[in-house]
Amino acid sequence: MKVKFIGGAGTVTGSKTLVESNGIRILVDCGQFQGIKPLRELNWEPLPILPSSIDFVLLTHGHLDHCGWLPRLVNEGFEGKIYCTSPTKDVAKLILLDSAKIQEEEANRANRDKYSKHKIAEPLYTVKQAEQVFPLFRVVKPNEQISLDAEISAVFTNAGHIIGACSIELILENKTLVFSGDIGRDNDVLMYPPTKPKKADYVFLESTYGNRLHPNTDSKAELEMYINNTVLNGGTIIIPSFAVERAQTVMYLLWQLKEEGKIPNIPYIIDTPMGISALEIFANNRNWHKLPEQHYIQMCKMFSMVSDYQETIQAIYDKQPKVVIAASGMLTGGRVLSYLEHYIELPETTVIIIGYQAEGTLGRKLLEGDKEVKIYGKNYSVKANILEIEGLSAHGDQNDLVNWLSALENTPTKVFLVHGENQPADELQMKIIERYGFDCAIPLMGQEINL
């Protein structure tokens, strides 16, 4: 049995892990690289194996860095089955269509404004190519064993993080390989705590926040303070958000604050067509989250739902203070950039960062204090207040990741730390060895290992 780390090793994006056993090839996740240019350029590279030779894709969840390369995989010859939970299928469809649309729009804009280094800028994939992925989806129920082959089976178990997200147990050659996917938090506002594995011969554990502990602060109180201070100064609050789960979490907290009379009666806008569509996924999958139906209905009534771009323009030029939740969460594209173009040079503006920001993304640059940033090929001075609420992250921190291993009834042969930058992975490795004494390794991108 061989395992090859094609993506998501040494970085938090582009997750792709290939498992080969007795002539069967299984790809766990098929994510898009995001962030710094050398990583983004990997999206244009062919896989080290022929996509047509892959039999199955197993998706842990529907975020772009885990499913966003599927259109390329299918376009380059993959014809197998893509297994995932029902909410993950719905989320992945939304995210792939949105990604394709953004790819097409950015290529068109680059060609129109002539800021591409290429003679003709092309999208990584088109909407049509994204749609060709959908017939290959196969829905699985959590905690039920599915047979992939006569001697290979898989079990999907709840991972928290976002709606539909799962860890995957792959049973083959009398061994159990556990792929964590992205691990959520035990005390998440909307998601249930992740299920801990009980048996694993090999573990592939994410390490996104392997060197961080989430602060023991009240995220709701922070939101209240930042909004009230900004409104007092006549400013607008922009919250870049991942369209699935983070946007709904922030909506829920804002609704609670409004119900409690703690934030003012100003416009509250959710401007992410995908985030609005994701609300329907929450409504249709109530057993996957904690949001009560009555609260969901009341929460939705509080927000202006902006889908049409003309409404975005109206919201941007409306001078009154307002709160805007807009995608994308790492400011790598989407409607939020249109708001930033107008508001980032205004000192009364507040931008609240609420999720992980990968290396090289605009979100990371703002957090690191860059005073000038580039949006759609133009430079802007950063005069807005850039604030962060760490407690709203959907990723488990170092303690959550270490504790996730605590229910194992056996000692795994090896734990591989993936989906993390070098320093977080190094620190998590030390903590795991210190607590459990497990053999723990950090694979390199492109590395192949015989199990």
Walk me through what this model shows.
It is a single chain. This protein is of the alpha/beta class and 451 residues long. Helices cover 31% and strands 21% of the residues. The protein is built from 14 helices and 22 strands. The strands form 4 sheets. Strands 6-5-4-3-2-1-22 form a 7-stranded mixed beta sheet. Strands 7-8-9-10-11-20-21 form a 7-stranded mixed beta sheet, covered by helices on one side. Strand 8 (152-158) and strand 9 (166-172) form a beta hairpin. The longest helix is centred in the N-terminal third of the chain and has 28 residues, at 86-113. The chain is globular and about 65 Å long. The mean pLDDT is 95.
